[in-house]
Design brief:
mainly beta, seven-stranded mixed β-sheet
């Protein structure tokens, strides 16, 4: 069955960096768009970034553009989100999802907590 397992979250100081990973299984990873979505405490879901099936054409929310980089390793069936210059506003649970905003998100991971605090 399809599984998406995020990891790499944690507590980091403002200005710090983290790299999130999402290990995918149960489907053809290389043939699917993949997306990162986050949910801050007390708020709704926020789309963060998306990458197409070829690994190109990444797109980002304005709030993270220039600081976050999405990538994928097809050999490892893993999606990544490199985050630098983290801010308190980036504190959220980060989810990876199979799909994109146009076609919908068919599967979600369980999420990984990122907390940015001094």
């Amino acid at each position: 069955q399809v599984q998406l397992v995020e990891s790499g979250g944690g507590l980091v100081q403002p200005g710090g960096s983290l790299r999130l990973s999402c290990a995918a299984s149960g489907f053809t990873f290389s043939s699917n768009y993949m997306t990162w979505v986050r949910q801050a405490p007390g708020k709704g879901l926020e789309w963060v970034s998306c990458i197409d099936d070829s690994g190109g054409s990444p797109t980002y929310a304005d709030s993270v553009k220039g600081r976050f980089t999405i990538s994928r390793d097809v050999a490892k069936n893993t999606l990544y989100l490199q985050m630098i210059d983290l801010k308190a506003a980036d504190t959220a649970v980060y989810y990876c999802a199979k799909g994109n905003s146009a076609e919908g998100y068919e599967y979600w991971g369980q999420g990984t907590q990122v907390t940015v605090s001094s």
